[in-house]
Design brief:
The chain is mostly helical. 61% of the residues lie in helices and 0% in strands. The longest helix is centred in the N-terminal third of the chain and has 35 residues. 52% of the residues are buried.
Length: 636
């Protein structure tokens, strides 16, 4: 179907100056912005982690004061969860989901840009707390009643406003992904045929939609307690600290799966390509991802076994916590069965996936131990929980993300990351992780509490803390290797070509990096491996010989034209960044109790909403589903 911008459409980009990035709506640029910003926050969080490990390398050190240590571990956790893992995964989804489903862009490009700028301004607002009396110091979970005045600083109030902005960003992105995958799939692509990273993102978007409102309600009530005299969480005045825990963990445990389900999708894309086999049990993998999303809302109170709730309630939460291990185990066996008998190519992406599978399995097993209530009572709030949490999310999410970086970097940049440096990076971070976090299980069993800035020299924790700190330094060195590899490869890396891995999904059917319009034509979609079908229409078997290459293969007579290419770069719009600025102004007004600033911010928002509605946006005229046509006119 032909595509022609409307006469009053926003002007197209001219070049790649800063304005083209500030007003970008192209999903690929938004993806780059998300991923780049997330990694910047990641390195800040790693610096905080190194400070913590240096402070506890031996007893009695005073590198950080108790208050500074509280701020460091609180900001480390908040940054890793809300400013790295969530937006980093959303960034990869922004870049690749439209490519994977054969779409030109997201369903709502301007909304996509708004979600990024809201995330960025939320992060900036959070870190501004260092300049206004101190940052968050009550942990990333900020338990009541420590999060109330006078037990904590103004940094907690800033944290509440920041999380509102970050939650809004995530909700906007989730809605956009759901509509995009429901309406803009390529002709012939069913949900079953969607690449698993796209399907995992789809499941994840529903998790976000149902989990974030609980967090938003909790921080809104906390703001009212701190600033307007409400008593939701104040037991002395009729409130209840337990309300906070229920609201927070009803978000907090699904959040674990928000951070890991897209990582499962990444591994499910990489393992088959480097095993030269289709994924074993694709249907069961999709069912497992859906069940994980569902069960994630049934287990929130296993974080609350030490709170004194009823034994019946604990028994239910213990059982559901063990139940969720079943779909998780299914995925592990799917990946192992895919590699079994395959023609394995141990390039860096597969190495990170293997590391993720091994270490995440340890995290899953220790998670089951924490579902046993008596054992949980023994190790709750100790370093055992710290080790488990990092086994799941550091080894799970981060290893999958690094595998995805090495896998998709050629598509995003046109150049390959150096595989030798990649293997050095993997070896160092794998060793560093084991040296850092395995001793923490022993420290937890020996009784070392988490979130303590020092300890007595005669309690038997000295050697294990020394080893754990050395491991942290090894992880830091591995990240330096990664940065050197990325910077060098961007400038002088080997040219990748369109499909250096002989992969099978649609993102590899276009150039590296993709053009503004993504595709000029699409192959017919007959299975979950359209590029394999295009290359071998006469061969029903799945195992691809090592000497077969898809790179440069012509579309062939059966290729289906997806759409005419755009006339130049994607349209620009200043509205998203202006709208995000307006929301930041309103947040500042709430923080400083300024009616004038609030009125200005609200007027700003109303004006932008009118402009948003009146400026006609080019329609993504792609009849993706038979008999249907989705129009984003006026919505963007």
């Amino acid at each position: 179907m032909s595509y022609a911008p409307a006469a009053d459409a926003p002007v197209a980009a001219r070049g790649e100056g800063i304005g083209a990035w500030l007003m970008a709506t192209d999903h690929k640029k938004i993806g780059w912005l998300y991923v780049g910003t997330a990694f910047l926050f990641f390195f800040v969080a790693i610096a905080f982690a190194i400070l913590m490990r240096t402070q506890t390398i031996q007893p009695g050190l005073e590198i950080l004061s108790p208050q500074q240590y509280n701020q460091v571990f609180s900001m480390h956790g908040t940054t890793m969860v809300f400013l790295f893992a969530m937006p980093g995964l959303i960034g990869f989804a922004n870049y690749f989901v439209p490519l994977m489903i054969g779409a030109r862009d997201m369903a709502f490009p301007r909304l996509n840009a708004l979600s990024y700028w809201t995330f960025l301004f939320g992060g900036i607002l959070l870190y501004s707390s260092f300049m206004f009396g101190g940052a968050l110091e009550t942990g990333w979970f900020s338990y009541a009643t420590l999060n109330l005045e006078p037990y904590s600083t103004f940094g907690v109030t800033i944290w509440t406003m920041s999380l509102v902005l970050l939650g809004m960003s995530s909700m906007l992105g989730a809605i956009n992904f759901i509509v995009t995958m429901m309406k803009l799939r390529a002709p012939g692509m069913s949900f079953y045929q969607m690449p698993l990273f796209a399907f995992a993102t789809y499941v994840n978007s529903f998790l976000i939609l149902f989990a974030i409102p609980s967090l938003t309600a909790a921080v809104a009530m906390l703001y009212l307690d701190r600033e307007l005299g409400a008593v939701w969480f104040d037991p002395q005045n009729g409130g209840s600290a337990m309300i906070w825990q229920h609201l927070f963990w009803f978000f907090g445990h699904p959040e674990v799966y928000i951070l890991i389900v897209p990582a499962f999708g990444m591994v499910s894309e990489i393992v088959p390509v480097f095993s030269r086999k289709p994924l074993f049990g694709r249907g069961t993998m999709m069912i497992a991802l859906g069940l994980i999303g569902l069960y994630g809302f049934w287990v929130w109170a296993h974080h609350m076994f030490a709170t004194g709730l009823s034994g019946t309630f604990f028994a239910v939460m213990s059982g559901t916590s063990m139940l969720i291990a079943i779909p998780t185990g299914i995925k592990i066996f799917n990946w192992l069965a895919t590699m079994w008998g395959g023609s394995l190519r141990f390039n860096t992406p597969l190495l990170f996936c293997c590391g993720m599978i091994a270490l995440f399995t340890v995290g899953g097993i220790t998670g089951v131990t924490l579902a046993v209530v008596p054992f949980d009572w023994q190790v709750t709030d100790t370093y055992y929980v710290v080790a488990h949490f990092h086994n799941v999310l550091f080894a799970g999410t981060l290893f999958a993300v690094f595998g995805a970086v090495y896998y998709w970097f050629p598509k995003m940049t046109g150049r390959l990351l150096d595989d030798r440096l990649g293997k050095v990076h993997f070896t160092l971070i794998m060793v560093g992780f084991l040296v850092t976090f395995m001793p923490m299980y022993a420290l937890g069993i020996l009784g070392m509490p988490r979130r303590v800035y020092t300890y007595a020299p005669d309690v038997g924790w000295n050697s294990l803390n020394l080893v754990a700190s050395i491991g942290g330094y090894i992880i830091a060195i591995s990240l330096i290797v990664f940065v050197v590899n990325a910077v060098w490869s961007l400038r002088k890396g080997r040219i990748a070509g369109d499909n250096p891995w002989n992969a099978w999904t649609l993102e590899w059917a276009t150039t590296s990096p993709p053009p503004p319009e993504n595709f000029v034509s699409l192959p017919p979609i007959r299975s979950e491996r359209p590029l394999w079908d295009l290359q071998h229409p006469e061969r029903p078997e799945y195992v691809i010989p090592e000497d077969v290459s898809l790179e440069g293969h012509p579309p062939g007579p059966e290729a289906a034209t997806a759409h005419a290419p755009l006339a130049g770069p994607s349209p620009l719009s200043p509205l998203p960044i202006l709208a995000a600025t307006a929301m930041l102004v309103i947040a500042i007004a709430l923080l400083v109790h300024s009616i004038l600033i609030g009125i200005v911010g609200l007027g700003y928002v109303v004006g932008l909403l009118v402009a948003w509605a009146l400026v006609r946006w080019p329609e993504p005229e792609m009849a993706m589903l038979p008999g249907e046509r989705f129009s984003a006119t006026g919505a963007g």
